[in-house]
């Protein structure tokens, strides 16, 4: 597979990543062994040819020990020795293989700009070598040697450049895979955090609603204890039933919070998911708490996605809880669900005296919580006093943003 070309900024960044990686001990040992082997063979062959040639050969071969860690410095050192060879008119020798290895090293491990400079230096060396060592030859032989040496230099550089590009491509894939893994972990933690926040809001709704009913019943039972013992007993029974139901639901949600930090959001795991079908039971419980509630459904009822049904249920529950807290004695409340063509409209209104305090009594979980729930489903919530007295909450929840019409 041929790696796609990368832009210069990506090449520079990935080259920096590769250069920053520590060199394995095995690679260091290989470079030392390579330089030693070349010194023992090509170096001593050159030394047998001419003593100066042997010295120059060792000067070209010993720097290869640092060909990966210091590729630019290695190429500069080897090239400098080659210039000394040219100035001293020393013939080509076996140690000149160090030039090709240094050129290959800088094309693989060096920066891109230095690699291209090294190719230019190699081309200049071909011209200098042809002029020095084949200047007295026939022009055809000069051209042949120039082409041959140029092809050798360019071929070594091209092989190294290809290996560098492939290495950068692999490093880029590794970095991308690592980034995707980090993103996955971050999204997983965020999902767990969101789930815990949702459960905390559910616990608030359960506790606030249950306690509101229990407080109203307790006050009513205390008032009727002497005059109407039967009514007081009924209030106490309602308190017990409400407390047990709220405790059962809260235990389910607390069980979710007790899971470990690596909580996996299993779609099959049970969740407390009341919906629109649970609203009549909710309204009946509030009625038993002493609040007069009218419940009305208009339009053609339909099956709703779980999230939309839960949102509608919690908005009604929060609205009735606020009415219990703030509307005052004798207040009447109405809950209306309008199944329109494109959205479900939920209206909770009362004629009590608590219009001024309901929206701001609990800004963290009251109206703000309703709006957060509605926004998740793509809907809106508006709330405020009604003309003539009372308070009204209106939620508009579209169908199509939550799965469409069933």
UniProtKB/TrEMBL annotation:
Residues 27-166 form the DUF7134 domain. It comes from the Bacteria. Keywords: ATP-binding, Kinase, Membrane, Nucleotide-binding, Phosphoprotein, Transferase, Transmembrane, Transmembrane helix, Two-component regulatory system. InterPro entries: DUF7134, HATPase_C_sf, HATPase_dom, Sensor_HK_TwoCompSys, Sig_transdc_His_kin_sub3_dim/P. Its EC number is 2.7.13.3. One of its GO terms (molecular function) is ATP binding. One of its GO terms (cellular component) is membrane. Gene3D superfamilies: 1.20.5.1930, Histidine kinase-like ATPase, C-terminal domain. It is an enzyme of class 2 (transferase). It catalyses: ATP + protein L-histidine = ADP + protein N-phospho-L-histidine. The chain crosses the membrane at residues 32-59, 93-110, 117-135, 141-159. This is histidine kinase. It comes from Kribbella antiqua.
């Amino acid at each position: 597979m041929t790696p796609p070309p990368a832009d210069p900024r990506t090449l520079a960044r990935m080259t920096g990543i590769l250069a920053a990686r520590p060199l394995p001990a095995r690679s260091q040992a290989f470079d030392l062994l390579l330089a030693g082997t070349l010194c023992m063979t090509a170096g001593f062959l050159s030394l047998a040819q001419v003593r100066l040639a042997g010295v120059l050969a060792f000067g070209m071969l010993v720097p290869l020990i640092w060909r990966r860690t210091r590729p630019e410095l290695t190429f500069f050192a080897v090239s400098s020795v080659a210039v000394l060879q040219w100035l001293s008119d020393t013939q080509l020798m076996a140690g000149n293989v160090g030039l090709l290895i240094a050129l290959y090293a800088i094309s693989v491990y060096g920066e891109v700009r230095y690699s291209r400079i090294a190719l230019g230096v190699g081309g200049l060396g071909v011209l200098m070598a042809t002029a020095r060592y084949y200047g007295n030859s026939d022009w055809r032989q000069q051209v042949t040697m120039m082409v041959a040496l140029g092809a050798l230099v360019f071929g070594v550089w091209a092989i190294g450049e290809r290996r560098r590009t492939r290495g950068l491509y692999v490093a880029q894939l590794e970095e991308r895979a690592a980034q995707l893994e980090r993103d996955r972990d971050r999204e997983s933690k965020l999902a767990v955090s969101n789930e815990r926040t949702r459960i905390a809001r559910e616990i608030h709704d359960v506790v606030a609603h249950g306690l509101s009913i229990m407080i109203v019943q307790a006050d009513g039972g205390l008032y009727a204890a002497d005059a109407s013992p039967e009514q007081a007993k009924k209030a106490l029974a309602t308190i017990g039933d409400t407390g047990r139901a709220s405790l059962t639901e809260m235990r389910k949600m607390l069980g979710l919070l007790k899971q470990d930090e690596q909580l996996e959001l299993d779609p099959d795991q049970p969740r407390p998911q009341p919906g629109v079908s649970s609203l009549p039971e909710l309204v009946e419980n509030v009625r038993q708490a002493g609040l007069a509630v009218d419940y009305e459904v208009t339009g053609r009822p339909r099956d709703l996605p779980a999230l939309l049904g839960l949102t509608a249920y919690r908005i009604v529950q929060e609205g009735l809880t606020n009415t219990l807290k703030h509307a005052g004695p004798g207040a009447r409340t109405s809950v209306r669900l309008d199944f329109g063509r494109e959205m479900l409209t939920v209206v909770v209104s009362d004629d009590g005296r608590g219009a001024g305090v309901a929206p701001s009594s609990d800004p963290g979980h009251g109206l703000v919580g309703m709006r957060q729930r509605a926004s998740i489903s793509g809907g809106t919530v508006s709330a405020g006093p009604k003309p003539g007295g009372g308070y009204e909450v209106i939620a508009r929840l579209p169908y199509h943003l939550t799965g469409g019409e069933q």
